[in-house]
Amino acid sequence: xxxxxxxxxxxxxxxxxxxxxxxxxxxxxxxxxxxxxxxxxxxxxxxxxxxxxxxxxxxxxxxxxxxxxxxxxxxxxxxxxxxxxxxxxxxxxxxxxxxxxxxxxxxxxxxxxxxxxxxxxxxxxxxxxxxxxxxxxxxxxxxxxxxxxxxxxxxxxxxxxxxxxxxxxxxxxxxxxxxxxxxxxxxxxxxxxxxxxxxxxxxxxxxxxxxxxxxxxxxxxxxxxxxxxxxxxxxxxxxxxxxxxxxxxxxxxxxxxxxxxxxxxxxxxxxxxxxxxxxxxxxxxxxxxxxxxxxxxxxxxxxxxxxxxxxxxxxxxxxxxxxxxxxxxxxxxxxxxxxxxxxxxxxxxxxxxxxxxxxxxxxxxxxxxxxxxxxxxxxxxxxxxxxxxxxxxxx
Length: 395
What we know:
Layout: H1 2-16, H2 22-54, E1 61-66, H3 79-86, E2 93-94, E3 97-98, E4 100-111, E5 118-126, H4 130-134, E6 138-142, E7 151-155, H5 156-161, E8 170-173, E9 176-185, E10 195-198, H6 199-205, E11 214-218, H7 225-234, E12 240-244, H8 245-289, H9 291-299, H10 304-334, E13 338-343, E14 348-353, H11 358-384, H12 388-393
Parallel strand pairs: 5-10, 7-9
Antiparallel strand pairs: 1-11, 1-12, 2-3, 4-5, 4-11, 6-9, 7-10, 8-9, 13-14
Helix pairs in contact: 1-10, 2-8, 2-10, 2-11, 8-11, 10-11
């Protein structure tokens, strides 16, 4: 209890005197805040990107690609294959038939509003069944495109990111012009970065015959996946692979999110090293300024451990303060910020919103706490080992 009492007494005395060391303390706090701001800001890109791709995935929706394909872009399916997939056991049906959506995926160059540079925008050919299969889609402006006509609807994030993609405008792809008749919302998924039109019209415009690249099939239930996938695997006419939409979207975001996470952590680590050295310098200054106070406490019988602990606690308090400030700035600056970037696996632009999650904020504050602790170790040891007689003579 004696050591505990000493620890509390010295720590409270130390923290109470922080107001007399505002300048050096602010230097450390700003350093910690900067590290957390960058760390949370960069990783919020990955969180937002993965959320746009994975957020709307469903276990009862299956993605069928040609075997060995890593994305829709490199897949290819014949019309006959899409019919066999639609007739497979496990596929849900309604009065209009199988809930199956064969789709064509191409890219079109559109100028970005932010940079003025052309970027690849996903251009998807769909059938009228897509609205029943995908679910969660709604037209927020204008109307749906008509079958057999050069009309398109635009995801609302694509409309906000790219030039000229508004209702009443015209999208040009080569020598073909498409009238923009509607804007759609899909609940925050990556589909909001796309342009949609009638698959038959898109096939003719790109000389694709009757081929498609992917089939989205809605299952009777999530438990029907094994039956459906097994039927496709055992059919000698087919060379396809079926994947749950949740797994497919997770795989599509993996490369990008891994790259962002590694890069963000590396940058934050480099900045963190600088912040720790800044904290060490600050705490050494604090120990030097408190030499007489520490010597007096030691002469009164206070042990080395409470003195060491008080310096460590001060470092952690400064770290937490910096972490909270940096996290707050990151939230207000980055959270919800709209951007778009290239998906390395589909080579197309994906529009998304930065996502500063509670987990990122907690990680940032915890990292700042650790930096404060590391910054206080060496100065704390010096304070604990300070010769009492020498420090008292210098008073």
